[in-house]
Each structure stands twice: as C-alpha cells, then as structure tokens.
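User: Structure tokens for both sequences below?

Assistant:
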Amino acid sequence: MVRRSTGARKRHRVRRGDRSRAARGEGGFTLVELLIVVTIVPLIIGALGAGLVAVFSLQGSVSNRLGDSADAQVVTSTFIKDVQSAVSITTSPTAAQCGAGTQLLGLQWGTGELVSYSEVLQSGSTYSLVRNYCATGASPTATKSTTVSYDVVAPCGSGTCESPPIVYSGGGVLATSTGYADVQGVTKVVFLVQEAKSAYNYTLSATPADGSSTAANALGGPTNGPTCGFALPGTGTYSSTLCFVGFTNALIQSAEGAGGSTCTGGATGVNVSAAVPGGYTMKFCLTVTLGNSNDVVIAKTFPTWPGAFLGNDINGTPFYTGVGCADTTPTVTNGQGTTSCIQPAIYEQTSGAIDTVTASNIVVLAPNGADATNYRVITADAETTDPGESLTWTSSLPAGSPFTFSQVPDTSSSAEGDACNETTLTGSAGQSVTNGAGLSGVGTDQVTCVSTWQSGGSYPRTGTVLLEVSPTTSGGVTAPVTISARLQGAGLQGMALGLLLP
C-alpha cells in the first residue's frame, strides 16, 4: 500500500513537468519587443541600402578613372618616343597634318614620317584623342590610327576646352601656332590631357632629341681651308643641322691625280680635312676618276644651273639656299634661290661624260680629337637627272657588310619630288612619266636615280635625291664610311657631300 502511494505521487510529478514544458514552448514576443524590432530594423536596412547605393554609384567613376589612368601610362611612352624623334613641331590646327580630326600637335620626324595628335568627334559632344601616323608625310588618310584617350574635353573654342601643348625653348615659349618650327633649342613639350567624364587630368612631357643641338648661328666657324657650311635658316627641313662640304678646283685637280697627290695608304687622290662648325673636323680621301682624259670636273656653287633643284626653290620657297653664307636673308631672284657662298658641288663640264667621285674613309673628329658620334654622312644629286642620264651611289665600308643608304626627305610631304620619275605626268615634250620607276636601291648599299623626262614648261623640277649613311660606334670608335658617286650625263651631272649633325 505504501509503495503504490509513492508511485502515484511520482507519476503526478511527471505530468506536471510535461505541462510546464509545453507552456513554455508556446510562448512568443511581447508587444514591446515587436515594437522595438519594427522600429529599428528599417533603420538598419535603410542605412545598409544607402551605403550600397553610394558604392554602386561610385563604381562607374572609379572604373573611368582607372581606365583613364591606364590610358595615361600607355600614351606617355608613345608620346615621349614621338617627341624625341621630331625635327620640327607645330600646334597649329591648319598646318600639314596626318589623318582626320582637329590637330593639337604635329610632329615631323627626320625620316619623313608625320605624327598628329588630334581630337576626333565620336558622337554628340564626345571627343577622343587620336594618334595618327603617316609613313610618307602629310596625308588625309593615316597609315595607322590609335585612340590614346577617350572622352577628352572638346577642342578650345569656349569654356573648358582641350588646349594644345606648350612648347618651351630656353626660358620662354616657342611660337608654334602658325606652322612648323625647328625643334632646335626646344627644352620641353608639355601636353595637359583632360578627361571629361572622370574629371581625370594628366600631363605628358617630353624633349626632342634634336632639341639640344646648337643653333647654326651660335656655332664656331673655321678660319681657313675647306668648310662644311649650313644653308640659310628656314630654307630646308634640316637647314640648321645639314652642312655641305665646300670644294675648290685645286682640290679636285689633286683628287684626279693631276697634282701627283696621294692619300694616306697610297691611293690616288687628296686628303681632305673640312672644318665643321662647332670645332669638329670631317676627314676623308677624295678621288675623282675621269671616264675620259678630256673630261673636266670643277667645284661649283648651288644651284649648279638655273634648272637644278638643290639650292634653288620649291614653288618660290628657297630650298637649301645660301649654303655657307652668313647674315643673309634667303631670296628667290629670277627663279633662282640665293647662291651659295662656298662651292658644295662637284660638277661635270663635259657633256655625256661618265666620271666617278669617291670619298673614302670618312670620319668625323670631335674638338678633343676623339671620334664623334651620332652623325650621318649625306650625299645628294647636285644637278638634275634627265633622259639618258643616271647617278649611282655605292657604299663600300665595312667591306663585308657595307652600310646601307636611307633617304632624307626633301620636305615632310615629299621624298624627292618629281626627281627620278617620281610622279605621273606628261612632260612638256609629250613624254610619259611612270610613277616611282626611277629611284631604286634605297635600303641597300647601292642606289640609282634615272629619269625619262626633262624639266621644262609647266613641269619644273620639284625635288632632288638626298641620301644618308649612318655609321656605327663601338667602344668609342666610329666606323669609317666610303661613298662613291658614278655620274653619267647626257648633258652634265653633279654630286654633293655633307653631314647631318645630331
């Protein structure tokens, strides 16, 4: 009996515990708790939402700025190389340009190529900065176009605008807004590029390699003996850096062996030591080989005759005139440019003669007697090549692999004008001219110019052949250069020799 009573009490306690747990499992939030949750949660979610909206709204701007920063890094390296290669520069939107768009900067290279940094309208008021490259000078169609910056501000007219670069020379700003200017003396080219959407601005800065060259009128001059003379300023793309060697009849006669002269090493000819402005010296052996003992070859001024191009003019604009002259204003008188003050041409006087002029072992010494570097040896047609005539240049050093010839353009838009049949027209006598048929061998060690037409009437000469050889330097020693020119005239032929200085 006692045990049953105890068991009943135990079962009763278990049932009471089950009811207590069940009561607790059915419990919920109080009204106060619900009010707190309903009030605070929206505040938290709103704050998080506002933060996300702010982050997403910045994403486009950040992306634009990152893209523009990448553009800046890419264009900087290209811009520096372009400016370093330039021999003339302009910020004029109307000067000779490559490709389409509004030109902000034009750069003419020493090898004739032209680079224009121009703004091109994409749509509406959106502009891109485009680098246009033309392999043969000014052209409405670029050889290659590359967009270097997207969404730049519009070209200057009003309001916020993309200003052209600033070209510094010495302590001032060089005037380049009306046309191309020589980079000589240029210390820096600064170009501020402004991106519209991202408001990201960056500055490009570079200096032309030729900017450190000394102006021709500031260089020292020789007092006696042969000289290498510059043309008058502004009369050619390289008028301040291209000098032509002046010869004398006595030198040429000795080079023919008439004076019994021999160069070092025993070759027939004469040792020439020409003073180059700035204290440099150009040395070589000059040999003139006559095709016939009755041939006559002389030293002659530019232009060698009224129809010659070198030393004359391009449609009234002087072209390498007044070589060796000082303090003279270039002019064109009676269809001829200013006559040179030295005699840069070696010129035949016997019609139909075939003669060869050789300048061997050409070297240039610095004022301290060490080998000079970075110069280029120049040779040119100092007359005209007409029907039945030719002029062939040959490079013969180094013996195993001679230096090759490159072409020096007459202007930024013309390699040699209509010399060597380089145009399509009908001559004054009705003869047909085939474009590009007369100049061969550029890029090799032998170049030939021939022609099937003669200047006259409505078709005057508009160019001449200028060639260069670039010697190599190793261990402080610059390799010598040897160039020969074979002159074959129906009438007369002539050649010139010089240096293109850094």
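Moving on to the next sequence.
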Amino acid sequence: MDNATISFELTPDEKTVLALYEIDDKNTLTINHTWLKDCLKENGYGDLCILDEGAATLIEAFKDCDCSSGSVPIAKKVDAEVNLRISRDKMGAYLTILPAQGGEKITLDQIKTLLADKGIRHGFISEAIKSAILKGEASDTLIAAGKPVKNGEDAKFICLLSEIKIRTPQVKENGNIDFRDMGEIVVAKPGQELMRRIPATQGKSSKDIFGEVVNPRLGKDIPFAKGLQGVEQDPNDPNLLRATVTGQPIIVENGVNIEDTMTVKEVNLTTGNIIFDGSVIVNGDVENGMKVHTTGDIHIAGMVESADLKAGGDIVIRGAIIGRGDVRDKKGNFNTETATIYADGSISAKFIENSYLEAQNCIYIQDWVIKSELYALNEIIVGNN
C-alpha cells in the first residue's frame, strides 16, 4: 500500500487548484505528468491549465521519498483570449480565439465590443462569428469583409464582321474537295457595320470594414485608331464604324481598314483562288489551275501558268503567260489546261504560249506569241517594234 496521499482543492478566489500531499519514508507511489492530468480529470479539474512549475515540484517530491507534506499550485483556470487582425487594405477582419481552460468563454457581446473598439462597422459575417463562439476557438477566421470595388473596364472593340473566318478548301456536292477553292474572300460594302466600340466604364465604389468609401480604378477610354482608311464613324453613333468604300476589311488594332486593292505574295494552293471585288496585286506567280477574278485591275509581277484570269479593268503581267497543250481540241472546245485571260480593259504581258486572251480594249505583247488566240476590240500589238 502506498504511504502517500494527494488531494485537490480550489483557492478562495476559485481560480487556482492546490495539490495537498503527504509522503512518508515508505512511499512507493511514483507520479508523472500524465498521472497528474488523469487525476485532475477524475476530480473535476480536467479542463484547467496544468501549471508546469507546480507539477515539476510535486513530481520531484515523490521521487525523493522523504517524509514531507504541503500544498502546491497545480492548475489554474484560464479565460479565453481573443485577437483581431485587420488586413492592410482594410477589407478584412480576422478573429483568433484561444479556447478557455476552465475559465470564461468568449461571448458575442465581447466580440461586438472588440469590433466597436477597433472602429469596424461594416461587412460583418454573422455566421462566422456565431460559429467561432459556439466552438469556443478560431484561427484567423474572417468575420468582417468589405465588398471589393468593381474596377472600371477599358474600352473594347468588337468586330461585327461575323463572316470573317479562315478560308478552307471547299467540299463539292459529290463529296470531292477542291483544294483551289478556299471559299469567298470577305468584301465590305459602303455603309456596312464593321466594328463597335464599347466605351470604358467607371466601375463601382464600395466600402471597407470601417465604412470608408473605396473608389475604383477608372477604365481607360481608348478611341478608334487614327488614320483608318475606307471607314468612318457613324454620324449618329460615334461608337460604330462603317465602311465608306467597297473592299477587303483588314482588322487592325482598335479599328478596321478597307482596302480596295488586295495584295498577295503568289496565287497557289496555299492562297486558293482569288475572287475579289476590287483590284488584286500578285507579287509572284499565278500557278497552274488557279483563278483570279476581280472587278478591278490585276497586276502580276511574275508569270502566269495555265490559269484563269478575269478582270473588270486591265490585266498587267510582267512575266510570261504559258499554258499547256493546244488552245482548242479537234472539236473546237477549249483545252482545260490552256491559260485563259479576259479583261474589260487591256491586257499586257512579256510573251505568251498556248493561251487564250480576250480584251475589250487592247492587247500588248512585248516579245512573241506562240500557239495562242488573241482577240481585242481595238488593237493587238506584238513586239517592241
């Protein structure tokens, strides 16, 4: 049997628990921190904070096994502690509660008083506050939040040419794919709506957790680009851009240009056939089997193979026109590989072979003509002389 006793009692202020002990020289009881914690719990003091110094003193006394008696403060009641952190931008208040250990718990009134003392009077999150109080603890929990400002948006530009798309090879009715036909080139007409400008917005102000007004960042009011060609702002709606001429719409930063002349590097399977309401400039060659049909002029810096050219104006070819095979077969029908060139104006080229040319004005060939048919309403001139 252990020759030692330990009992517990509250101090008169009921805040501290004393451990009363008696030990004689025959004691065999050994205690430790866990034993003390269990013993305090059995005596109804399990929620209190154990005092490390008192526990160490009591444990050491039982180790010595000397005859002794006395009392040691072994535990105390600790009230809950509360802390409030405010974010730098004054848009959030964060609550931390260290739970009570046998002492007073945090109440709603205490939280309200704390918020009032800090000057916080806007954006309370009631559910978060109630939950923290109910749990008796919290770790940096958001309990008040200002509503973020809605910053203004910069002006936007919306293209109204919904038909602008990537040109792709067209599928014929029989299911075959025509790799030369890439679809129509988009052409704008005078008066057509091209682009709408959405003006910048001012945004919407808000309040921080102190009730102070927080102003938004204003959107940048960007105008249509300067120097746009072939377009104008609608006189009744300055945020609407309309075409003033017929041509190809080219999207640029903050606007649209209308070009009545289309320029391409060359005409081949990559570009597809060119069907354009305006004039066309080809900086290279027009390859075999391709088409260039325009309502304006056609200017070609290179040569034309077995291609089909039609122009509402003049056709100027700096190089040669070279078709394949005879212009017509034995029945008088056109050979499909013949170069066919038609212009409502005049046609000029360096030299031609196996080609059909027809002009409503004149035809000028710099060098020679071989196995070709030429028709002109006015004159045909071959050679520099």
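User: Anything stand out in the second?

Assistant: Residues 165-171, 177-182 have pLDDT under 50 and may be disordered.
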